[in-house]
Amino acid sequence: MKQENSDLYDRIYEIVSRIPSGKVSTYGAIAAYIGLVSGARVVGYALNNLDLRNVSNSVPAHRVVNRLGQLTGRAHFPGDSMKERLEQENVMFTEEYTVDIQRHYWDPREELI
DNA sequence: GCCTTGACGTTAG
DNA sequence: ACTAACGCCAAGG
Fold first, then answer.
1. Cβ pair A39, A46 in contact under 8 A
2. Residue ranges of chain A with pLDDT lower than 50?
3. Are A12 and A46 in contact (CB under 8 A)?
4. Is residue A64 left, alpha or beta, with left meaning phi > 0 and alpha meaning psi from -120 to 50?
5. Cα A18–Cα A9–Cα A34 angle in degrees, nearest 5
6. Which nucleotides of strand C are protein-proximal, with an atom < 7 A from a CB?
7. Are strands A93-95 and A64-65 parallel, antiparallel or unpaired?
8. Which residues contact A102 (CB under 8 A, 6 or more apart)?
9. Separation of CA A99 and C1' C9 in angstroms?
10. Least CB-packed of A19, A46, A56, A95 within 10 Å?
11. Residue A41 CA, nucleotide B10 C1', distance (Å)
12. Which positions ≥6 away from A82 have C-beta within 8 Å?
């Protein structure tokens, strides 16, 4: 069965919304879960459209970081709300704008476990 | 309708 | 171990 573009975006938002508090996920993990091998860029683009959809409050995009744990999307957030948000979740930061991804890494399949 | 850019990731040197 | 280039999908110009 073929998936429409809208479904792809919706799926991304759904997975991101499933990220538990105090945990972070990566674009690649989400992309891989959907079926995209190296289409992690699409995931980022989808989150960018979040602002256009005005659902930023429903989708914790601040919990999504790259595989290095760097807050690459912090520039798209008002001020440092992304970093403060993660700190509010007791997420440990290895650097100013880098979270301890190896410790707080969360995979979409963990909910299945 | 073609080309460039982008919240990334992997492989090669 | 670090740096450079290529690849992927989607949207805007």
1. no
2. 1-5
3. yes
4. beta
5. 65
6. 7-11
7. unpaired
8. A69
9. 27
10. A95
11. 13
12. A62, A71, A73, A74
Beta bridge partners of A105: A24
Query: A31 with A43: CB under 8 angstroms?
Result: yes
Q: Take residue A102 and report the two structure tokens written for it.
A: 């190896």
Q: Quick check: helix, strand or coil at residue A56?
A: coil
| Nucleotide with the nearest C1' to A71 CA | B7
Closest nucleotide to A47 by C1' from CA: B7
Q: What is the pLDDT of residue A86?
A: 95
Q: Locate the domains of chain A by residue range.
A: 5-103
CA atoms within 13 A on the CB side of A43: 30
Question: What dotted CATH number matches A5-103?
Answer: 1.10.10.10
A86 C-beta less than 7 Å away from strand B: no
How far is C-alpha A50 from the chain's CA centre?
11
The confidence score (pLDDT) of residue A56 equals: 58
**What are the beta bridge partners of residue A65?**
A26
